[in-house]
């Protein structure tokens, strides 16, 4: 491997994210438990999110709008406006959450900095991801921050062109096989999967990945012995 750039996914790779979404979803379902059981509200919310994804993209603001839309649907427009107020509050609480770095992240970045160009490649709200990066204290490790509207092959090709490298000089590290691994392998890059214990339904893939430019590790610091 002649790697020049190491790109890190952010949410659930550098710091905790999905548990906050799941906790918010649980509290949102509680707001509507007089109308439908939790799992039905959850299903409706997921359906709404998937419908709106092409319009809103990823992130907390999109999630807030989807909670409001779901509440209207579930209650057949009979809801008390305090439900909307509370859904918006839940979203704002998410935006104010502290950043909880995952184990080993700082040490890994410190030992790779200077040897490689380090990049963050993440989806989500532009403003929220910028804020999280600042709060994380990790910003100084990175040469470039790419906040992407999606992580498809074309999005990675654009990033690689921008970095002025060949695909096989690029390695992506992340917790999502669907977003961080499969598209990167497809364009000729290297990918490392670091699974996180909770995965958003939308990011789940059920097949096993085998590829000579791919490996899966249990902890992020294991990457150091593979470079
Ligand atoms: Mg992630």
UniProtKB/TrEMBL annotation:
GO MF, one example: hydrolase activity
Keyword field contains Ubl conjugation: no
Source organism (scientific name): Dyadobacter sandarakinus
Alphabetically ordered keywords of this record: Hydrolase
InterPro entries to which the protein is assigned, alphabetical: HAD-like_sf, HAD_sf, PGP-like_dom2, S-2-haloacid_dehalogenase
Name under which the protein is recorded: HAD family hydrolase
SUPFAM superfamilies associated with the record: HAD-like
């Amino acid at each position: 491997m002649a790697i020049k750039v190491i790109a890190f996914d952010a949410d659930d790779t550098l710091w905790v994210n999905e548990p906050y979404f799941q906790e918010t979803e649980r509290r949102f379902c509680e707001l509507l438990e007089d109308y439908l059981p939790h799992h039905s509200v959850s299903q409706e919310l997921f359906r709404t999110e998937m419908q709106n994804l092409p319009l809103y993209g990823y992130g907390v603001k999109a999630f807030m709008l989807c909670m409001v839309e779901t509440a209207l649907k579930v209650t057949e427009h009979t809801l008390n406006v305090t439900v909307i107020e509370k859904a918006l509050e839940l979203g704002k609480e998410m935006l104010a959450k502290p950043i909880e770095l995952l184990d080993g992240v700082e040490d890994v970045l410190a030992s790779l900095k200077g040897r490689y160009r380090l990049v963050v490649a993440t989806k989500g709200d532009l403003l929220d991801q910028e804020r999280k990066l600042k709060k994380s204290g990790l910003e100084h490790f990175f040469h470039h921050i790419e906040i992407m509207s999606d992580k498809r092959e074309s999005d990675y090709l654009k990033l690689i062109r921008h970095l002025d490298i060949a695909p096989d000089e690029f390695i992506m590290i992340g917790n999502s096989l669907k977003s961080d691994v499969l598209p990167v392998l497809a364009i000729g890059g290297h990918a490392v999967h670091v699974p996180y214990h909770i995965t958003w339904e939308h990011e789940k893939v059920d097949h096993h990945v085998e590829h000579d430019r791919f490996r899966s590790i249990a902890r992020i610091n294991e990457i150091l012995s593979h470079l």
